Amino acid sequence: MVKNYILDTNVLIHFPGCIYTFEDNNIIIPIICLEELDNLKKKEGILGYQAREAIREINNVRQYGNIHNGVKLPRGGTLRVELNHMNPVDIPDGVDLNKNDNKILTIALNIKNESKKIKTILVTKDLCVAIKAESLNLEVQDYQSDKIDVDKVYKGYKEIALSSSQIDKIYQGGVKLTKKMGVTAYPNEFFCIKSSDKKGHETLAKFDGNKIVPLKYAGDKAWGLSPRNREQKMAFELLMDEDIHLVTLTGGAGTGKSILSVAAALQKVIENHVYDKIILVKPVISAGNSIGYLPGTEDEKLKPFMESFGDAIENLMSERSKKHHGEKNDKVDKNAKKRGESIEKPLFSVESFLGQYKEAGIIEMKTFAFMRGRTLSNAMVIIDEAQEMTPHLAKLMLTRAGLNAKFVMIGDPSDNQIDNTLVDSKSNGLVYVVEKMKPYEITGHISLEEVERSALAKIAEDCL
User: For FRET with 310, which of 70, 167, 195, 392 sits at 20 to 30 Å CA-CA?
Assistant: First the structure.
């Protein structure tokens, strides 16, 4: 049965291509939404970009017919811009009719009352609008097409039991995944395997698309860093494998997403020369103000947002400098501590390290705003705080991938770590990419669980 779907501005901004996802139904865009898009299109950053993309998508529809009368869309349904139905006759006193949200509610209510035989649904991502719509007895929905069930999000690994003889065969050429095992797997999915007949016999393995095989990088280090727990070992495997071109890592604060990614990038670029450069990408949403309001050059503006990368590099370099001291120097240091003498810190600064490699073109720091139109080849690209992206922006980022590029998307997709009002834990670009990209042989994902930053960080993550 055909329905009327009235779209709020925030839905168009969240996913500019949403107009093609409502099947054989009537899509109605209030003229107020176009006014709001017009006001937002000059905004800097993600909001302005999404508004401009939404305007372009609506404009593309005009080739199919007259948008005033209603345009038949190529995938079914019709789209029209609503200019009327603004009479607030059924709107109760106390509602401020000067607000655009309430004008959209008025239009939706009038269309509902006029179209008795067609169900009318307001689609919005604004909680307050949703509450008011329901109070007016309007049916209201969030945009559902790109929502992911968070409880069922792909973790990247399974726990299974095999016989000890099968575990041994994994290290003798691999084991075929059969129906008798009672499990299925995506390419590059991991197995935490325990023996069904021998206590204490267990291992980690990976499904390569054909067989269950042992980890290739189990004994390796990246820039002096070794993974600390099983999830980190699996993530490390994906990061080090040059045949995997997209790695997604999710997890709470302190689980090791950033430091593992940065260590692998430094190893692959500076030590092994597999890629020509590291590109560090991060959104600037959390600052409140646009990047344009901060003083200085692009690098100076980006500096506050890139501190997580700097912290990771500083921790890695500190560990490396400790290991290079040698036993003799360690003894001197311990004796100096006993005597109460101060010990000089290694002469290293993150700023000088980054400055040196940025000047050489080996490290770049960018925001999402500077990615459009670029082709990133021979590079390892780390996208931090990827939960802030919309699905549309995630697609924009991944379509920048050129030859011999490896993309790493990391973030915490829980609601309390999302500052972008356009997305939530179910509709952000990170979980969207995890779910949509999991069947492919050049992609891999791991959900990190254990907090390794410190005992305090672990307690805070678990209890607060």
Answer: 392
